[in-house]
């Protein structure tokens, strides 16, 4: 189990023999839920994970109540019925279309989900699990993983060596070249970084001219990094902010992930989900970096509706799956600054 914790400094700790410190960060939490045979440990973890920041000194409950109250008040002041309407006012979707989509998904997935649970129960029963008839939250992930192993003779941990970080980045950058005609070149040392694991890259157009730069901070560092993954801008492309002698300031992006760190001299071996996450964030970064717009205030990801901004990221994610078709040279068209797949 790749648990990030050799850094906590137990003298004789090794990746194989422990002792391990297990935290509630995703690279730690998920393997426990998938692989810990000790059901009581899974329950303890599940409850601890779900009740983060809800008791004691760090209890956020009162703050959340206050936020909800203020949001409703804001909605009323602005003439809306609720905060969902305020939020949707600047997005592509409306509360109604979002509800419709959710209902469509719910009704389409209900029966298969019920069937999945039944399959899981009977599989657990066949394996002699005492909890087979009462599978609950801290059992589902564990037994799903066992069922997958039995069906495909492989579990997610065994897939990791196929997704080493250097291989994944090579694949991602190769894809970007095929789709957009760009080269991604390492540019470490060109700009200062905040941690020695952070990489710096340059994007070059087909003539080899730099058109953008980005930072990539891949690994989970629980003591100083929050959960999840995100992309944001460092600089937007801007004519006004150009330095003397150049026509435009090039965009710079930052991509931050929380994936499994390397252990020993092996590179980071990623889960498939972590691979999707990198592709997703790179989709956002591309929209920011490949913009042709020279007016900084509307360049890249700026002023794009929050739901529309997820199009390029989801688009890139889909390339993680083999769909049996070679990427065609012109699968994209530009429309109002957004990348949209052609039909
Ligand atoms: Zn996103």
UniProtKB/TrEMBL annotation:
Cofactor, free-text remark: Binds 1 zinc ion.
Cofactor needs: Zn(2+)
Peptidase M3A/M3B catalytic domain boundaries: 32-323
Keyword S-adenosyl-L-methionine appears in the UniProt entry: no
Keywords associated with the record: Hydrolase, Metal-binding, Metalloprotease, Protease, Zinc
Keyword Hydrolase: yes
Family in the record: Belongs to the peptidase M3 family.
Protein name in the entry: Peptidase M3A/M3B catalytic domain-containing protein
């Amino acid at each position: 189990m790749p648990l990030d914790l050799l850094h906590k400094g137990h003298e004789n700790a090794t990746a194989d023999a422990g002792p391990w410190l297990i935290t509630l960060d995703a690279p730690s939490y998920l393997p426990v839920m998938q692989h810990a045979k000790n059901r009581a440990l899974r329950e303890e973890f599940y409850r601890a994970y779900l009740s983060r920041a809800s008791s004691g000194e760090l209890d956020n409950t009162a703050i959340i109540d206050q936020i909800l109250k203020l949001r409703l008040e804001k909605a009323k002041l602005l003439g809306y019925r609720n905060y969902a309407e305020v939020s949707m006012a600047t997005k592509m979707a409306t509360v109604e279309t979002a509800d419709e989509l959710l209902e469509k998904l719910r009704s389409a997935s209900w029966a298969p989900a019920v069937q999945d649970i039944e399959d899981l129960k009977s599989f657990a029963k066949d394996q002699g699990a005492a909890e087979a008839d009462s599978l609950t939250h801290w059992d589902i992930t564990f037994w799903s993983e066992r069922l997958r192993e039995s069906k495909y003779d492989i579990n997610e941990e065994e897939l990791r060596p196929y997704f080493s970080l250097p291989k994944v980045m090579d694949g991602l950058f190769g894809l970007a070249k095929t789709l957009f005609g760009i080269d991604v070149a390492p540019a470490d040392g060109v700009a200062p970084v905040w941690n020695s694991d952070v990489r710096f890259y340059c994007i070059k157009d087909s003539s080899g001219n730099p058109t953008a730069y980005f930072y990539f901070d891949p690994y989970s560092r629980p003591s100083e990094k929050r959960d999840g993954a995100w992309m944001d801008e460092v600089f937007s492309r801007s004519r006004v902010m150009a330095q003397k002698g150049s026509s435009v300031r090039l965009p710079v992006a930052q991509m931050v992930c929380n994936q499994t760190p390397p252990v020993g001299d092996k590179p980071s071996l990623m889960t498939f989900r972590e691979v999707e996450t990198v592709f997703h964030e790179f989709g956002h970064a591309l929209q920011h970096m490949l913009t042709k717009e020279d007016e900084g205030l509307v360049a890249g990801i700026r002023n794009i509706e929050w739901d529309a901004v997820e199009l390029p990221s989801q688009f890139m994610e889909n390339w993680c799956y083999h769909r049996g078709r070679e990427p065609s040279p012109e699968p994209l068209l530009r429309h109002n600054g957004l990348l949209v797949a052609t039909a």
